[in-house]
Amino acid sequence: LHAFLHREILTSSLPNLFFAGIDMSSMDRFGIWVVAILSVVQSSLGFYLPGSYPHKYEVGDYLNVKVNSLTSIETEMPFSYYSLPFCKPSEGIKDSAENLGELLMGDRIENSPYRFKMFKNESEIFLCQTDKLSADSFKLLKKRIDEMYQVNPMLDNLPAIRYTKKDGYVLRWTGYPVGIKLQDVYYVFNHLKFKVLVHKYEEAANVARVMGTGDAAEVIPTIGKKDSDVPGYMVVGFEVVPCNFAHNGESTKKLKMYERYTTPIKCDSNSVSMAVKEGQSIVFSYEVSFEESDIKWPSRWDAYLKMEGSKVHWFSILNSLMVITFLAGIVLVIFLRTVRRDLTRYEELDKEAQAQMNEELSGWKLVVGDVFRAPSNASLLCVMVGDGVQILGMAVVTILFAALGFMSPASRGTLITGMLFFYMILGIAAGYVSVRLWRTIGCGDHRGWMSVAWKAACFFPGIAFLILTTLNFLLWGSHSTGAIPFSLFVILILLWFCISVPLTLIGGYFGAKAPHIEFPVRTNQIPREIPAQKYPSWLLVLGAGTLPFGTLFIELFFIMSSIWMGRVYYVFGFLFVVMILLVVVCAEVSLVLTYMHLCVEDYKWWWKSFFASGSVAIYIFIYSINYLVFDLKSLSGPVSATLYLGYSLFMVLAIMLATGTIGFLSSFWFVHYLFSSVKLD
C-alpha cells in the first residue's frame, strides 16, 4: 500500500492537490493524512515530493549541462568552476538564478559548453583546446588536484553520479575529480563519457486517472507542447565516467567546438595516458549515450538518497531510542512517586504538625519563601529563553516539513531558505516569551519590556552575524564561492532589521499586554542562606548533558557526514523522532536536577535548570572536535579548520539555546505546580 501511494500520489503532484481547491471527501482527506504519517514513519525510503514539474524533451531537442562550484572534503571551500582552465561556452559564462539558500551554501551554478541532443548518441566530440598553461595556472591546477576537488555537472537539475567498484562493492559518488596524481605526475580528466537515462513522458491524462477525479485534467496544466502525438522523454538519470586521453594537439587546432574528433577515443577510467605540463595546452572532449529506463520521474532522486549502511543506521537509531526511552521512563516514574509521596504526607498533616515538620525537616518545603526570588541577570535569561523558543520552533517546523517531503533535494537551497523564513516569522514568539517572562519575574512590572524585546531581536542574530562575518573574511581572502557576496550581506541585514526585529517587537508588545504568571507563594524580603554543599552544584549541571547527548550522538554522526563529507542526508523522519525524544529527555533531566537542588535547600534554580539541559552543547562541541581529528583527518590548512570550528560553534550555540529553553520552561512549570499544590498560610 505504501509503495503504491509513494509512487502514484507523487505522480499526481500532492501539493497542487492541496492548493487547487478540489472538493475532496472526508475519506480522501483521511488518505492524504495516512500518506503524511507513513512518510514520517518510513522516511528511510527517501520519501519526498518532486520540486518541479517534469520537463518534456522531444527527440533532437538540446540538453544543456550546467556546472556547480568545485568542492572538496579536504578544504570545505568551494571555488568557481571557471577558476580552472576549463572550456568556456561560446555564448559566454552566465549565472543561473539562485535562491537565498543556494547562495548561503556556496552554490554557484553556471552554464557549460557541454550540450546534447535528446536521444542522439554522439562520440568523439571535440570541445576545445585551452591556451598554454602559465606557471600560475599550472600551479593552481596541481593544487586543486592535490586537494581532491570535484567537478559537479548537472543536467535537468540532476547532479552527475559516478559509480566505482571497490572490494566487490559498488560505490556512488556525485561529480568527478578534477584529476589524479600518480608518482608525482599530474593528470587531468579531459574526456568525459556521459550516459543519460530517459523515460517516456507521461501525459496529464494519466495523472488525472490516478487522482480519480473527472475534473482533474482541467485544473492540472500539461507541461510540454500541445501536440501529444509527438513522443517526448524526461531525464531520469545522469551518469559520468571521467577519463584521461592523449589527444593529438596538432590535429585539433583546425577543429571547431562540437566537431567530431579525427580518431576514435577509448575511454578507460582505470588508465591515464597524458600528463599535464606547464607551457602545454589541454584538449577536452566528450561522448554521450542515451538509454531508456524504467525509472519514473518521482523516483529519479532515489539513487542519490540511498544511504550506505542503512540497516546499521536504522537499528542504531532504534536501539538508542529504546534505551533512552526506557531510562527516561524509569527516572520519570521514580520522580513522580517521590514528589507525590511528599505532597501527600504534607497535606495530611494539620497546621501545627506542618509548622513542626518545617522546623524539623529539611528539603524543598523550606525554600518556599525564596524559590521564586528573581535570578541574577534576569533580562539575559529572558532573552536567551525567548531566542531558544524561536530556534526550537524553527527546527521543529523545518524538520517536520522536510520529513513530509516538502523540501525536496531537487529544489536546492529550500532547506536553508525555509529555516530563515520560519526563524524570522517566529520572532513574534521570541518577543512574546521573553517579555512575558520578564514581567513574570518582575511581578507584573511593565518597565523595561522594550529593552528586553530589542535584546531578544539582536542577541542570537548578532552573535551569528559576528561569527559568519569573521568566517566570510577568511573565504573572501581565499577567493572562494562559499563567501557570501556583499549584496547578499545587505539583503540579510535588511531581512534582520526590516522583518525579524519588527516581528520580535510586535511579539514583545503582546507579551507586555498579556497577564503575567502569578507566583503561588510570596517571596521573603530577606534571602535564606543556602547550606554548604558536599559537591559543587554546577558539576552536576554539566554532567546532566550526557543523557540528552546520548539521544542524538548517532544521528549527529550522519548529519556531520552529510555536511562535511558531501553525503546526501534525507532521513528527516529519523531526525524528527530523535528531536521529539530529545525534548522529552531535556525536560526530564532538568526537572530531576531542579528537584535535587530544591531538596538540598538550593533555591537558585533558574540558571541551573537552563544549563542542565543546555550543557548538551558542550558535549556536541567536544564531539565536533573529535570528528575533526579522527574523521576529517584530510582537512588541510588552518583556514579550513577555522571554518569548521566556526560553523560548529554557531551550531552549538543554537543547540544550547534551544535545549536550555526546554529545560527551563519545564522546570518553571514544575516549580510553579509543586508550590501551588502545597497549602500554605
Automatic annotation (TrEMBL):
<feature type="transmembrane region" description="Helical">
    <location>
        <begin position="570"/>
        <end position="593"/>
    </location>
</feature>
<feature type="transmembrane region" description="Helical">
    <location>
        <begin position="538"/>
        <end position="564"/>
    </location>
</feature>
<keyword id="KW-0732">Signal</keyword>
<keyword id="KW-0333">Golgi apparatus</keyword>
<protein>
    <recommendedName>
        <fullName>Transmembrane 9 superfamily member</fullName>
    </recommendedName>
</protein>
<keyword id="KW-1133">Transmembrane helix</keyword>
<dbReference type="GO" id="GO:0000139">
    <property type="term" value="C:Golgi membrane"/>
</dbReference>
<feature type="transmembrane region" description="Helical">
    <location>
        <begin position="413"/>
        <end position="435"/>
    </location>
</feature>
<dbReference type="GO" id="GO:0072657">
    <property type="term" value="P:protein localization to membrane"/>
</dbReference>
<feature type="transmembrane region" description="Helical">
    <location>
        <begin position="488"/>
        <end position="512"/>
    </location>
</feature>
<comment type="similarity">
    <text>Belongs to the nonaspanin (TM9SF) (TC 9.A.2) family.</text>
</comment>
<feature type="transmembrane region" description="Helical">
    <location>
        <begin position="605"/>
        <end position="629"/>
    </location>
</feature>
<keyword id="KW-0967">Endosome</keyword>
<feature type="transmembrane region" description="Helical">
    <location>
        <begin position="380"/>
        <end position="407"/>
    </location>
</feature>
<feature type="transmembrane region" description="Helical">
    <location>
        <begin position="456"/>
        <end position="476"/>
    </location>
</feature>
<feature type="transmembrane region" description="Helical">
    <location>
        <begin position="649"/>
        <end position="675"/>
    </location>
</feature>
<dbReference type="InterPro" id="IPR004240">
    <property type="entry name" value="EMP70"/>
</dbReference>
<feature type="transmembrane region" description="Helical">
    <location>
        <begin position="314"/>
        <end position="336"/>
    </location>
</feature>
<keyword id="KW-0812">Transmembrane</keyword>
<dbReference type="Pfam" id="PF02990">
    <property type="entry name" value="EMP70"/>
</dbReference>
<dbReference type="GO" id="GO:0010008">
    <property type="term" value="C:endosome membrane"/>
</dbReference>
<keyword id="KW-0472">Membrane</keyword>
